[in-house]
Amino acid sequence: MKIQILGSGAGGGLPQWNCNCTNCTSARHGAGEVRPRTQSSIAVSENGIDWILINASPDLLAQLRAHPELQPARAIRDSGIAAVVLIDAQIDHVTGLLMLRERTTPLPLYACRPVFDDLSSGFPIVPLLSHYCGVERNEITLNEPFAIPAAKGIRFTAIEIDSKAPPYSPRRAASAPGDNIGLLIENVASGTRAFYAPGLTSASSAVREAMQSAQLVLVDGTFWRSTEMIDLGLSDKEAADMGHLAQCGHDGTPGMVQLLDTLPRTTRKVLIHINNTNPILNHHSAEHAVIRARGIEVAHDGMHFQV
Ligand code: MLT
Ligand code: MN
Ligand code: ZN
After folding, report:
1. Average pLDDT of 26-53?
2. Is there a contact between 43 and 52 (Cβ–Cβ < 8 Å)?
3. Residue among 92, 161, 235, 242 whose CB has most ligand 1 atoms within 8 A, to mutate
4. Which alpha helices (DSSP H) does the chain contain, by range?
C-alpha cells in the first residue's frame, strides 16, 4: 500500500497569503530552510493506479499537478482519484471537492453523518455538486471497518477523535461523535497499518490503541506550543480551542511529543498538518532538533510511504 503526502500544511498553507511571520517570509524568500507546503491531504493506493484521496484540499489542483502518478491517463477524461474520504468538514479538508466537479460520474464520497450534515447546510458543497458531477454518498460508521471498491485490499476504520467541528458548524462549541475522525488504514494482505489524524485535541484510549497498532503514525503537528498563536499576536485562541494538541505539554498535560514517546521505537512517527507559525518547519531551528532527536519526523509535501 502506498501513502502519498499531497499537502502537509494546516489551513492557510505555507506561506499563507496574508502572513509575514518568519516561516512564511522564509518560505517566500528564503534559501530553503523552510519549504513551502500546501494544505492538508494525503492519498492512498493499493495498486499505484487507483487512489483514495483523504481530504480534498483547497490546493488539490496544484497537488495533482505536482503528482502526475495520480493521472493514469486510461481515457481522454480520466483521473486516478477513485474516491474521497473526509475526516472532518473543515475548509482545508473539503474545498477541493469543488475542483473535482468536472468528473463524468458521481464522486464516491465517504464521511460520517455530521460531516455530511455540515456539507449540506453551513457549507453546502454536496447539494451544490449535484448540479455538476453529483456525489455518491457513503456514510462511515465509527469503529466499523470499511473498504472502497477501487482499493479492496485496504481496510479503513474511523476512530472517534476529540477535536472541533468547523467554525461555521452549529456544533463548533460541542462536537458530536463523527465530527472528527482519525483513520486506521490497513494493508489487508500484510496486516501493516498507518494511523492518520491531522487534528486531535487529546488522545483517548482508542486513539492510543490505534497509534500503538500502527507502523506509521501521521498525526497532528499543527502547533509547537499551545499559546503559539497568542504569543505571536495572531489570535486569542490556544491550540485546544482550535481542536489541536500542541507538541509541547503544558499545565501538566502531556503534549504530542510525550504521546509519541510512548510508541515503540520502530514506529515511524510523522507530524503532519503543520501550521505556518510552527518553529519545527525551519529545519535549522532548536525545536526541529528536539523533534529529530526523539525520532519524530516533520512531514513535507511529496513525502511518501510504503506500508
Ligand atoms: C484547523 O485545523 O484548525 C484548520 O486548519 C482551520 C482552517 O482550515 O482554517
Ligand atoms: Mn485544518
Ligand atoms: Zn506565517
Report:
1. 96
2. yes
3. 92
4. 22-29, 60-66, 91-94, 113-118, 125-129, 205-213, 228-231, 256-261, 286-293
Residue corresponding to grid cell 461523535: 177
> 228 alpha carbon to ligand 2 midpoint, in Å?
16
Give all strands (DSSP E) within 8-91, no chain letters.
41-45, 51-54, 81-85
Q: Which ligand is nearest to the CA of 167?
A: 1
Q: Where are the domains of the chain?
A: 2-306
Chain centroid to CA 32: 24
What is the pLDDT confidence band of residue 237, given thresholds at 50, 70 and 90?
A: very high
What whole-number percentage of the chain has pLDDT above 90? 98
Q: What angle do CA 216, 176, 271 make, to 5 degrees?
A: 25
CA of 202 to the centre of ligand 2 (A): 16
Inform me whether the pLDDT recorded for 278 exceeds 90.
Answer: yes
* 119-123 average pLDDT score: 98
- pLDDT tens, residue by residue, 61-87: 999 999 999 999 999 999 999 999 999
Residue nearest to atom 3 of ligand 1 (CA): 242
Express each pLDDT in 47-62 by its tens digit.
Answer: 999 999 999 999 999 9
pLDDT at 30 over 90: no
Q: How far apart are the first and last CA of the chain?
A: 5
State the pTM of this model.
0.98
CA of 91 to the centre of ligand 1 (A): 7
Nine-digit cell at 244? 489541536
| Ligand 1 pocket mutation, candidates 19, 91, 164, criterion most atoms within 8 A of CB | 91
CATH value of 2-306 in 3.60.15.10, 3.90.226.10, 3.40.50.10860, 1.25.40.10: 3.60.15.10
